[in-house]
Amino acid sequence: MAQPFRLITIKVSHYCEKVRWALDRLGFDYVEEAHPPLFSALASKLRGGGRTVPVLLTGDRVLKDSTEILHYLDERAGSPGTLYPADIRKQVEDLEEQFDKDLGPAARRLVYYHILDRKDLTLPVLLSGTGAAEQRLFRMVFPQVRELMRKGLKINAEGAERSIRKLEAVFAGASELLKDGRRYLTGDRLTAADITFASLAAPVLRPDNHGSGIRLMSTPPEDLARVIEPYRQSPAGQFALRLYREERGAMRGKIA
Ligand SMILES: N[C@@H](CCC(=O)N[C@@H](CS)C(=O)NCC(=O)O)C(=O)O
User: Fold this and answer.
1) By alpha-carbon position, which residue is closest to atom 14 of ligand 1?
2) The model scores a pTM over 0.70
3) Model confidence over 28-71: pLDDT tens digits?
4) Could you tell which of 8, 10, 11, 15 is best to mutate to test the pocket of ligand 1, judged by most ligand atoms within 8 Å of the CB?
5) Which of helix, strand or coil describes residue 206?
6) pLDDT tens sequence across 112-142
7) Domains in the chain, ordered, with CATH?
8) Which of 3, 21, 161, 228 has its CB 3.0 to 4.6 Å from that of 204, i.e. a possible disulfide?
9) What residues does ligand 1 touch, defined as CB less than 6 Å away?
């Protein structure tokens, strides 16, 4: 019998959530193997992946990027073309690329900027779903990893400001698309563009039904709550929260 797919993740990662959502939506069975940051890179490299997760092991292939994975899944789903309908494929792909490039990094940087100093908020989120040995090790090296994250992801005041401008532009663009009353970003069907937008916006929207099983910070620090509230209230934010309520559905993944 064919083995189910194996998905290597950082549980809370929004790019991992994008892939989990696609797997769940298309009805694939999979096992999720979660690691804290850094350990995730090691786990990925040992399997032939790159530095980042998600990585999907299909049995005969190692897929290293969320967009590549969504295309792969869509082609193999019961009804191909669900995530990338042929007639609007280009529009869906362009939106997905823009969200991957602008929304994902900006949402991540802004949230980390506000929580990384708070061990009590950061550690439970980064360690969720990971093994006991990795948890012990990660706690020990956390101060060093945090510095690496600060440098690598440019988590500083200027970075946070730039992220706010990026988020405003992306949310305004998505709100504009939805202005004519369409149900989804490209019309009347849920596509890869919608899944990408909602997943990558999740860190600043804090939806209830996040696929990581984590309520992204039940009480965010006040300054973060103030900064992200306008995104939750915007038409694009309300749209993504509706997708989480109505379309996210149940998680099919098993835990490794
Ligand atoms: N372009 C990649 C981006 C994935 C990504 O940025 N993953 C982050 C987690 S959100 C990661 O693995 N970071 C760990 C590292 O860079 O060491 C994709 O779409 O899959």
Assistant:
1) 52
2) yes
3) 999 999 999 999 999 999 999 999 999 999 999 999 999 999 99
4) 15
5) coil
6) 999 999 999 999 999 999 999 999 999 999 9
7) 5-83 (3.40.30.10), 86-246 (1.20.1050.10)
8) 228
9) 10, 13, 15, 37, 40-41, 51-54, 65-67, 100
